[in-house]
Amino acid sequence: MTVVRVLLSASLMALSLSAFAAKEQAVVVEPAKFAKQRQSIEAEIANGTRYREIDGEERKAVLSALERLGEQLSKVSAVTELHESDKVAVFNDQELVNSILSRAAADSRMVCRRETQTGSRIPTNVCKTVGQRRREQDAARQIMIQNQGNDVKAPLD
């Protein structure tokens, strides 16, 4: 009975380790598919729906990284054919694009809340992007820091 338990637990551990190993796959950039991906990303940046919270500097960084990736990948049919320094440059540009676009997509997510305005009992829906809410929070925090210790009252609008 104990031998069966040992074998069963050993096989379960081996299966669980192989499951974790399967999740860790290297990201592969395929030159054949890159042109479509690039067009899709550029279109989504241009129409401002998915990446509406991307600012001008980050937009330029993404577009220039995509340009560099296109130049590197147009020379070869597979990434493995690139020189090692070019592979590093492609990886770094890919990570730059992924990180900026992931952050912009997360910040562009619309969040709606039911809020009541001061002096009213009627709740209304207030929809803002995550980026807008963060900017408003930061601005309010700055006002609080500036007015801390002062007897200055906030202006009434």
Secondary structure elements and pairings:
Layout lengths: L1 H22 L7 H17 L8 H19 L9 H24 L2 E7 L6 E7 H18 L10
Antiparallel strand pairs: 1-2
Strand order of the largest sheet: 1-2
Gyration radius (Cα, Å) is 25 Å
Count of DSSP strands: 2
Low-confidence stretches: 1-28
Sheet with the most strands, sense and barrel status:
2 strands, antiparallel
Percent helix range: 55-70%
Please write the string of helix (H) and strand (E) elements. Answer: HHHHEEH
Mean pLDDT: 78
Kindly estimate the percentage of residues that lie in beta strands according to DSSP. 5-15%
Instruction: State the separation between the terminal residues, measured CA to CA.
Output: 79 Å
What count of helical segments does DSSP give?
5
Our count of domains comes out at 2
By helix and strand content, what is the structural category?
Answer: mainly alpha
